[in-house]
Amino acid sequence: MGTFKLNAIIRKAGFAKQDGYGVAEIVALMMMLPLLLLNCVHSLYHSEFQKITTMKKDAIYRLKNHEKMPWRRILYGVAKRFQTLTNPDKVVADTSAFIIDDTTDPRVGRHIENGSYIFDHVVRKTRLGFKDLVRGYFDGKSFTPLDFSIHAEKALRGKKRQEPYKKTCVPGSPGNKRRKECTVDKITQSITMIKRAVKHGFRAKYVLTDSGFSSKGFLQAMRQIQNHAMHVGCGGRKDKRQYTYQGEKLDAKALHAALKKEGHAKRCRKLHTRYFAVVVSYEGVGDVKLYLCRFPYQKQWRVFLSTDTTLSFLAMMEVYATRWTIEVFFKEMKQHLRRGQCQSRDFDAQIAHVTTCCILYIFLAYFRRVNAYESLGALFEGIVSAWVEKNLAQRLWELFEELLQVVITSIAESGSVDLAQFPRSPEYAALKSLFAESFLGNP
Fold first, then answer.
1. Dihedral angle of Cα 139, 144, 147, 152, to the nearest 10 degrees
2. Is the pLDDT of residue 227 over 60?
3. Residue 421 belongs to what domain range?
4. Number of domain units in the chain
């Protein structure tokens, strides 16, 4: 917190309490919960860790439920500080990218504000909860979350006693704006997020998304930002959208059939993949490059699209592979940082919970960046595993040195100098049994 100057970031965001505990102190306690393996505030005050603070739980709840708390500005302030610490010269890496994706945030209670039915593509069924739209920034080495919005899909229906909680907010407050975003479609919201990031001074070479965000409107909006400075790399869909190839309008399936008939298939030895790469015209967007490929052990051909027509297939796959960092982010947030465990029915509390998880993720990303850890799991296990590896290597070397000394002594005592005949000697048989007992008998 001292390195990131969290106190100054919160003051600059324009929010201060009139009395009681400071905002930074409360936020720090909220971020400590995942590190203490606690799911929520209630768990803290019913555990052995309740003595670490004299703060009462109501102070935390009041801050989490406060609609005037500028959580988005605070998250941006922390993300900017991360870039200042890790990239003071503001160098834009060739693999830097804004990455956009959504994830499910399942819930159990029906009384949570703005809760809805969402479709979970992993389990392929409808569940209660939210859809979290996240926009992160990959600077060439680390992924950091910059912004997010919580969305509802299909409204709940049921008896009156089961209706969700509703809260009246001050017009124009951050909480009121977040509630309005809940009903905005995710493509429109993602365009707003990218424009907001550029306004805050973040720069990237690419915008990477999956096929769910590959609409014509999204591509047009991204190419218009900063005078075509950013290219889009995304998964494509084999739907009815038309591309112009050699004066003929074809969809993805027809284009694949035409390329296959022409015999232009290529093979990438590094990825063991057959593919077609072709530049086509996409109405309203301009020239784009399509990559139709089939990966090993897959029957279906996949489509990828890039507005950078100079990229080869391998270069495009290497750039697009960085999109996987947001999937790792989702996994680590849910597995290690207890994202999705907030039990409050207030929508502002849900925003506060996700924001504090993102801030903690940025703190840990900086820590492992400095200490060269690759994952949060390695971060927690690094000290123990390093000690075990060092101890094991030292013990093996001592054992090997001891056995080597036994070999030298045995050869010297036997008086044998012919090493070719030594393997057939009784001394060799005795040494072999000694080695087997030392290594195989003591795993």
1. 120
2. yes
3. 389-439
4. 2
